[in-house]
Amino acid sequence: MTATIIDGKAFAAGLRARVGEAAAAITAAGGRKPGLAVVLVGEDPASAVYVRSKGKATIAAGMESVEHRLPADAAQADLIALVERLNADPAIDGILVQLPLPKGLDERAVIEAIDPAKDVDGFHPVNAGRLATGLGDGFVPCTPLGCLMLLRDRLGDLRGKEAVVIGRSNIVGKPMAQLLLGDSATVTIVHSRTADVPAHVRRADIVVAAVGIPGFVKADW
Question: What is the pTM of this model?
Answer without folding.
Answer: 0.92
